[in-house]
Specification:
With 501 residues, the protein is of the alpha/beta class. The chain contains 18 helices and 17 strands.
Length: 501
């Protein structure tokens, strides 16, 4: 057994997590989730722990969320255990988050208060107690920590999962018990500061940009999304963030590390799927799963129907659902003889538009629009032939990876994490795993649907061979071990020494 003292100690700082690995103690299996960051944090911690790393985690003590009562988070119902102490799990203590019912309140002043309380406890209690060799922070809620780490001369990695940020003056930060003068010169201000006193009461500190500015190394959750930001491809990314990421990029201190779906997303072991299957028997079992889904949703029951699945929230700002709304009826009509069907398992403000399209055209036996339910979503992955992800931008994306693992080929806009994970299907050369379009409009999506239908009309044996290949490649490529090993490479680069000795 390797002596843990020989290995660098990493402290992962995150405002949310879905579970912790068995072996880290009685706090395993609790959940504090608002979005994808929770899943990614849990997966990385678990994978690092499994690889034998000396890993610790710090997060707020959400006492109300750690009770045994069921709590609804953004997408799922979870059960969480009673809070107990553990040597590897470090809970920040403060009334600001003891009695929260969700990780984020939706009110910026309340979320700011939680963030500052969390970071104060990190600065004065958790970091000195853990004495880490490296700190790994996540998103704006931990944006002041890299500046603190720089003052302590501890290397810090800052991971950007989404580009949301908040601002506060140094006076506001001080009022929450943080001694800002210790590290104020490592923070990023909206206006150039001349000295501490001059800026203290009026000059806002940007939390996310401060995290990038002060960290030793920064990463986004896909290489392409980082490059797109640096090159100014996304106008919604404000200039300070773009410029600081560009500075890190040109200093060779920025990278992209793809996330990976949870291990439970595997059709061979997925308990939420009616008929389990793998690459060798997907042809028969996917047909059986399709029949189950059709019967459940009132669709025309035919295993030869070509089934398209929408797995993401119905958000027209990012997810491109308006593109599909523009062509939904026309593709159903054009491919009527192919029994084309579409299943939505997603919430969002655009859902009503699809409901109206289905009702007006009377195509309820071909299109089903459903609220998100975890079990139904898993069954749709297992039943579908193709899935839609026409996002206008995508920091990483997970459904397209899950689709490959389940043999549901993704139709995606060529951007961000979709660019990094999906490649154009080329049957002749036995390569590719989906269908990409470059122009983000309804015509571009329609072109990709046509290419998917070309594939669907191939000889059944040839098609089966390609889907088998895609499923095998998906399992080997989209997993947490690969993700954790890439983070370890970043840790080694920062420390200039092997991470696992």
């Amino acid at each position: 057994m390797i002596d843990a003292k020989q290995k660098p100690r990493i402290l992962i700082v995150t405002p949310e997590v879905t579970y912790l690995p068995e072996g880290m103690g009685n706090l395993s299996n609790y959940s504090a989730k608002a979005g994808g960051l929770a899943d990614v944090s849990a997966a990385l911690i678990s994978a690092l722990f499994d690889l034998g790393c000396d890993v610790h985690v710090a997060l707020p003590d959400y006492r109300n969320l750690f009770d045994d009562a069921p709590v609804v988070f953004s997408r799922e119902l979870v059960r969480i255990r009673q809070r107990l102490n553990n040597e590897r799990i470090h809970l920040a203590e403060d009334r600001a988050f003891y009695y929260l019912n969700t990780v984020y309140s939706g009110y910026s002043d309340q979320d700011l208060k939680v963030s500052l309380a969390f970071q104060r406890e990190l600065l004065y209690n958790i970091i000195p107690r853990v004495d880490p060799d490296i700190i790994h922070c996540n998103d704006w809620m931990t944006g002041l920590v890299p500046a603190m780490a720089k003052q302590f001369q501890i290397p810090c990695l800052f991971t950007i999962h989404n580009i949301h940020t908040v601002t506060a003056t140094m006076a506001e930060i001080e009022d929450r018990g943080i001694d800002v003068p210790l590290f104020w010169n490592y923070l990023y201000f909206r206006n150039t500061p001349h000295n501490y006193e001059e800026s203290r009461a009026w000059n806002p500190v940007d939390f996310l940009v401060s995290g990038v500015f002060a960290s030793h190394y920064v990463n986004t959750v896909s290489p392409a999304f980082l490059e797109e930001i640096v090159n100014g491809r996304h106008p919604f990314v404000k200039e300070p963030l773009r410029q600081e990421l560009a500075n890190k990029w040109h200093a060779d201190c920025a990278d992209g590390v793809l996330n990976a779906p949870e291990p439970e997303f595997n059709p061979a072991v997925d308990e939420k799927v009616k008929f389990n299957y793998g690459p060798k028997n997907h042809r028969q079992k996917k047909a059986e799963n399709k029949y189950v889904l059709q019967k459940t949703l009132g669709l025309e029951e035919d295993e030869n129907a070509v089934l398209f699945f929408w797995p993401s929230r119905l958000d027209p700002v990012q997810k491109g659902c308006q593109l599909l709304a523009g062509i939904l009826y026309s593709i159903v009509a054009e491919y009527w003889q192919d029994l084309l069907q579409v299943v939505f398992v997603a919430n969002g403000r655009f859902q009503v538009h699809f409901t109206d399209i289905v009702r007006i055209h009377g195509i309820e036996n071909r299109v089903a629009v459903c609220d998100f339910v975890e079990e139904l979503s898993h069954q749709a992955f297992a039943a579908s032939d193709f899935l839609f992800m026409p996002s206008s931008f995508e920091p990483c994306g997970l459904p397209q990876m899950v689709g490959c693992i389940y043999g549901s080929l993704p139709i995606v806009h060529d951007t961000g994490g979709l660019h990094d994970t999906i490649h154009q299907m080329d049957v002749e050369n036995n390569t590719g795993n989906g269908f990409l379009f470059n122009v983000h409009d309804a015509g571009g999506l329609k072109w990709a649907v046509d290419r998917a239908m070309d594939f669907y009309r191939l000889d059944a044996d040839a098609k089966e061979e390609q889907i088998r290949r895609v499923m095998i490649e998906g399992v080997l490529t989209f997993n947490h071990t690969e993700c954790a090993e890439k983070y370890i490479q970043l840790y080694e680069k920062m420390l200039k020494r092997p991470f696992l000795v």
